[in-house]
Amino acid sequence: MAECGASGSGSSGDSLDKSITLPPDEIFRNLENAKRFAIDIGGSLTKLAYYSTVQHKVAKVRSFDYSGKDTEQDHEPPYEISVQEEVTARLHFVKFENTYIEACLDFIKDHLVNTETKVIQATGGGAYKFKDLIEEKLQLKVDKEDVMTCLIKGCNFVLKNIPHEAFVYQKDSDPEFRFQTNHPNIFPYLLVNIGSGVSIVKVETEDRFEWIGGSSIGGGTFWGLGALLTKTKKFDELLQLASRGQHTNVDMLVQDIYGGAHETLGLSGNLIASSFGKSATADQEFSKEDMAKSLLHMISNDIGQLACLYARLHCLDRVYFGGFFIRGHPVTMRTITYSINFFSKGEVQALFLRHEGYLGAIGAFLKGAEQDNPNQYSWGENYAGSSGLMSSSPELCPTQRARSGTFDLLEMDRLERPLVNLPLLLDPSSYVPDTVDLTDDALARKYWLTCFEEALDGVVKRAVASQPGSVDAAERAEKFRQKYWNKLQTLRHQPFAYGTLTVRSLLDTREHCLNEFNFPDPYSKVKQKDNGVALKCFQRVVSALDALDWEERQLALVKGLLAGNVFDWGAKAVSDVLESDPQFGFEEAKKKLQERPWLVDSYSKWLQRLKGPPHKCALIFADNSGVDVILGVFPFVRELLSRGTEVILACNSGPALNDVTYSESLIVAERIAAMDPVIHSALREERLLLVQTGSSSPCLDLRLRRT
């Protein structure tokens, strides 16, 4: 959300238009289909949650009826493609300052059309203050929910559904965020909520938690004492003062008392021995900045030590911090992290959340939607409609932090079925699907962002070509270009915006932006053509393989897999070749393969294993359509089946680049089975199973698999 320039009170969306730089309909998106609401109102920020249905286009494939026709005619595609409308569920979360609550409620009221509910779930202290205003504006009854229950429900939800939700803060790193891989079992953990005071809650299961302690010294203390010391009344202005201050001008350090470190106790000289200790003896005025910094250190250190003691007492090693006191502020996170590390000797980890500002709103929404059992689904963050984590550095762009340090907009799409870790993973908690962390590797980040920028024209061209009958395809494609370009520029400056930046997340963001402008499968026509061409070559390829002796055939099959995998339109060098030389095919790709030994070469071990008993079952993840899956993968599958091995062929549930989808693979397998008795009998006897992965990404992620 953009910074606002007016008070925002008024009778309709006009006042909202004047107070923000983004169009209101880009903030409160899809309001006309909103079904259910929840709201979390704190001391200075309002977080609105609503559920809506979203209509979007999906590409469907269907096998032609070939009865009475010659299926081998060159002009015949292997299947037909249609674009249909589908309705899916989406969660919207919007955060704004309380100053604009009346204008926002007016805009919502004016644009509500199909809401099903007469109740709005509300939590937070402001739920009481603004109850009458909400009921008057929205004509919805306010149903107040318990604050702590909502916070914990929200925390559980984001930890389960959003990869890289939690991060540790590292002071001297660039960037300062280090995201954590989600553990398959999030429980138990300690939640430290720092509002006016501090509440410490032990969370053991989805529905079992216990308040185990707290403190009256919290965010309200910082605000109140800060106002007395500096005459500054606004919380965020206090944080700004603290970011510019030098606490050592006010605090007494160990070295101020002992002349250096205290060797006997093992205390370094720069540790704070007494907060505000110098103010008692120094005959001088202290700056507002220095006092604010000292106060922030004092309260953060106290909270960190308290949290550490409770974590050790209850044998917990994960502590999540939330509440308005955090606000993504670097000094706060740095001090709490230092305090936890110091007092626990590194055994307890201080963790912060990308969406900590939304926990109450998410929890309140889930409470109101319990009859729909939202936890039976998995939800995925929609990068196209989410703002991204802004830098916590106040010097970089204080207005961009939008008073919270986290998100302004968050959107999550409901997935058809729950996603779980692949059971075959040896250790899901340590599994990392990506080979390069672009958040950490600046040179690799620059290279890949440039690659995606340079590929953008080609993607736009493919998107338009995929919908030849659409009059507005070119206009929508340009909007996609602009949105994705803007996302790439954001990621250049804020590489941590959506968690750990990887090639996979860049591809996922592109797919989300394409779907945003109704381009569900830009490569559908390319895949249709490539599959048709490859199917006509299948019998010739397997006949040539069958003519080889056993050992020659095994090497030829592996080379076929490698050559087929070349046909990846996501690789710029490959797409350039395929664009410039349409005749480049399977045989040409095999000739381009380098001779053994390959860069990673386990072929000799594979061959030796094949001389033993057959494998019981093989799980193969298919990649590209056309030559790859039909001439590379299926002949390999055929060989395994002939040995007596059962085969599971897993394909993407949704489209991504030119990767073969599950629905396309069904038609391809059907066409191959009509030509090949080995594939035909294996499908009939269910020794060959085709399954969908639950993914719509070009990159493999075994953490996400359909149940």
UniProtKB/TrEMBL annotation:
Keywords: Acetylation, ATP-binding, Coenzyme A biosynthesis, Cytoplasm, Hydrolase, Manganese, Metal-binding, Nickel, Nitration, Nucleotide-binding, Phosphoprotein. GO terms for cellular component: cytoplasm. Residues 454-702 form the Damage-control phosphatase ARMT1-like metal-binding domain. Its main location: cytoplasm. GO terms for biological process: coenzyme A biosynthetic process. Coiled coil: none annotated. In the N-terminal section; belongs to the type II pantothenate kinase family. This is 4'-phosphopantetheine phosphatase. It comes from Bos taurus. The gene is PANK4.
